[in-house]
Design a protein that fits this description.
Blueprint: H1 2-14, E1 27-36, E2 43-52, E3 57-62, H2 78-81, H3 83-89, E4 93-97, H4 115-130, E5 135-141, H5 143-155, E6 161-164, H6 172-180, E7 182-184, E8 200-203, H7 208-213, H8 220-228, E9 233-234, H9 235-244, E10 259-263, H10 282-289, E11 299-303, H11 318-331
Parallel strand pairs: 3-4, 3-5, 5-6, 6-10, 10-11
Antiparallel strand pairs: 1-2, 2-4, 7-8, 8-9
């Protein structure tokens, strides 16, 4: 009898649902190609749209120079390094795009690719997301942040702006060597096969740890992945970047929605103002950047220590993911 009861309990257990982990959210991802034509005749911008069940808010995420949309969904320890996964687990949809000229977006002549033209292309994506979600936020990293700022300032069609790896004050002593180390794509053994014109640039082989990860711990797997997946940026993007930030009247002053700035103290954009923003603490960073967002209802900030420019690769990047989720839930509630 006892054996029969045990068997009955075991069989019953097979039909009792096991509670899912708290962060497990059913998410559907799809590839999306958005037509963009203004200034970029008949181009398309690729994006990966991932939507958790019931999501009403989406983040449009723009990567930095030499990166693609994959920067937001790093497959190495994704529970730690994937912004996409962190946002989706929090119930926030993500639309990570490839800038025009990179990844699976079309690649026109480099002369056609500038920050304003990229901002216009991203604007088309934002408008597409507007038809699907109640709230649309835009976020970027490095060059992608400049594009996000330009889009938000020009079109004023987003509910919040996330700025990572970029401030309105630069430490040029740190930034210029990294910029000067770029090479024409035609000289790169890996990317020259793309057949792009020399107005497209990339990083010199073997330079990515120093440029993007130092002083973070040297992780051979991370550096190898980063090198194998690197892409390009256009010289026109580089030239037009200072027109959007760190000049007398930066584009950020036209932004009228909440802003979140996430930086790391060792980056090119942190230092002693005006040579870099004050990244000594989250509070200091917010105070340092707030004057550049004069019309924004609020400017929040978070400082992640111990890593370099591309801190999505940091082993503790979940700390900044949590800060972004908290900011989005509170700062943009009434936007």
């Amino acid at each position: 009898m006892r054996l029969r009861r045990l068997c009955a309990v075991a069989v019953l257990a097979l039909f009792v649902p096991v509670p899912a982990p708290a962060n497990a959210v059913e998410t559907t991802c799809q590839d999306v190609q958005t037509p963009v034509s203004s200034g970029l005749a008949q181009q398309t911008m690729y994006g990966k749209l991932c939507v958790p069940r019931g999501a009403t808010t989406v983040q449009v995420l723009v990567p930095g120079a030499t990166y693609t949309s994959a920067y937001w969904d790093i497959p190495l320890d994704p529970e730690v390094r994937s912004v996409r996964l962190a946002m989706n687990h929090a119930g926030i949809a993500t639309m990570a795009v490839d800038r025009i000229g990179t990844g699976r977006s079309t690649r026109p002549l480099s002369a056609l690719v500038t920050v304003p033209s990229q901002a216009d292309a991203v604007h088309k994506v934002v408008q597409r997301m507007r038809s699907q979600f109640q709230k649309v936020l835009i976020g970027g990293h490095s060059l992608g942040s400049v594009i996000a700022i330009a889009e938000a300032a020009t079109y004023r069609d987003v509910d919040g702006v996330l700025v990572t790896g970029m401030t309105n004050q630069w430490d040029y002593l740190k930034a210029l060597p990294a910029i000067a180390g770029s090479i024409p794509v035609t000289l790169d053994p890996q990317l020259s096969k793309l057949g792009l014109d020399p107005g497209y640039l990339t990083t010199a082989p073997g330079s990515r740890y120093t440029s993007f990860h130092k002083p973070g711990a040297l992780n051979p797997a991370v550096v190898a992945y980063d090198e194998s997946t690197k892409d390009v940026f256009a010289a026109g993007e580089l030239v037009t970047t200072p027109l959007m930030v760190n000049l007398v009247i930066p584009a950020s002053r036209a932004i009228t929605v909440p802003v979140m700035s996430v930086q790391t103290p060792s980056d090119y954009f942190c230092g002693t103002p005006p040579l870099g923003s004050d990244c000594s603490s989250s509070e200091a960073l917010a105070a340092s950047e707030r004057p550049f967002y004069a019309q924004a209802p609020r400017v929040d900030a978070f400082v992640l220590t111990g890593y370099g420019h591309c801190f999505n690769f940091a082993p503790d990047s979940t700390r900044y993911h949590d800060a972004v989720v908290a900011w989005q839930r509170h700062a943009t509630r009434s936007s």
